[in-house]
């Protein structure tokens, strides 16, 4: 962008950084309730699983608080207002209205995106603000653990989805299966026996 002055490039960079972190905070808004719902479904099944997912949820809540604090500081010191998508509550409601497996896959994709973005665009960039890099570095470290838990959630939800689909397919097959010869003979005999009964005297 050679048509921008040095000052304009700095401002644009700051706006992009703000938009990036705001989007992170937005995503965390639907990850947190999703993880809590996943914990609640099997709260007493496995203590280690419950503790791991609750720790996951706690870190996501911390990230929301962290990004909100960053956004407030940015708005206070920046030269102009930067409009963003939202409100987060409505976006969260829209995302969570979809099936659990679909939501889990979206979250996992976002987690992988954060991992790759930090490694490709942040870690080795010497010109970036040190505080901005530190924030993203610590976020990247915690998200690396979340990616593993997200993968386990996707596996668990996939197993449930396959079982439900197999059960539904089996039920449909039983309902639509053609009658056997024995079934046909039995039904034919039943119809014949009823046709030979005398009419009701009433």
Describe this structure in words.
By secondary structure, the protein is mostly helical. It has a single domain (6-173), classed as Ferritin (Up-down Bundle), CATH 1.20.1260. The chain has six helices and no strands. The protein is elongated and about 70 Å long.
By oligomeric state, this entry counts as single chain
Output the number of helix runs. 6
Q: Overall 3D geometry? A: elongated
The proportion of residues forming helix, as a percent range, comes to: over 70%
In total, the number of strands is: 0
Q: What is the distance, rounded to the nearest whole angstrom, between the alpha carbons of the first and last residues?
A: 96 Å
CATH class: Mainly Alpha
Largest sheet: none
User: What percent strand?
Assistant: under 5%
The H/E string reads HHHHHH
CATH hierarchy: architecture: Up-down Bundle
- What is the count of structural domains? 1
**Low-pLDDT stretches:** 184-202
Computed structural class: mainly alpha
Record keyword descriptors for this entry.
Ferritin; disordered C terminus; mainly alpha; single chain; 202 residues
Condensed summary:
The chain has 202 residues and is mainly α.
How are the SSEs placed, and which strands pair?
Layout: H1 6-41, H2 47-77, H3 88-96, H4 100-122, H5 130-176, H6 181-195
Helix pairs in contact: 1-2, 1-3, 2-5, 4-5
């Amino acid at each position: 962008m050679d048509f921008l002055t040095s000052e304009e490039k700095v401002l644009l960079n700051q706006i992009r950084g703000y938009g990036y972190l705001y989007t992170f905070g937005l995503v965390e808004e639907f990850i947190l309730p999703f993880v809590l719902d996943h914990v609640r479904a099997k709260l007493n099944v496995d203590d280690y699983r419950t503790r791991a997912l609750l720790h996951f949820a706690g870190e996501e809540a911390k990230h929301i608080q962290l990004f909100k604090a960053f956004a407030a500081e940015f708005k206070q010191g920046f030269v102009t207002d930067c409009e963003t998508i939202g409100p987060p509550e409505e976006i969260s409601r829209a995302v969570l209205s979809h099936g659990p497996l679909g939501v889990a896959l979206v979250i996992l994709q976002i987690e992988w995106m954060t991992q790759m973005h930090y490694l490709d665009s942040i870690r080795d960039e010497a010109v970036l603000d040190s505080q901005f890099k530190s924030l993203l570095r610590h976020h990247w470290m915690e998200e690396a653990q979340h990616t593993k838990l997200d993968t386990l959630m996707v596996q668990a939800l996939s197993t449930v989805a396959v079982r439900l689909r197999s059960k539904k397919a089996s039920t449909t097959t039983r309902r639509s299966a053609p009658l056997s010869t024995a079934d046909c003979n039995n039904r034919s005999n039943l119809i014949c026996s009823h046709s030979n009964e005398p009419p009701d005297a009433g």
